[in-house]
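DM between two lab members

TW: hey, do you still have the Acb2/Tad1 hairpin domain-containing protein entry open?
JB: yeah, one sec
JB: this one, 72 aa:
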Amino acid sequence: MTQLPPADLGVRQNEQAQLLDDLSEATHRLEKLIQRIPPLGGNRQLAMEATKRFEEAKMWIDKATTSFDGSI
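TW: and the structure you got?
JB:
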């Protein structure tokens, strides 16, 4: 693991924070879109499967981003 110089570390941490914000916003939006599928006439079972797979994707995103510690 390579440690970044303090100035670069600050930039990296800002970029990581922005990424987490973007992921949170995208997650919220996608959750709302999936919830709209059945009421608009979409297949309820497939929407439930999409929700299940989306929850799994969120778990993997969480695992991938919990390693943010300033190293590259």
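TW: got it. The mean pLDDT is 86. The chain has one domain: 14-65.
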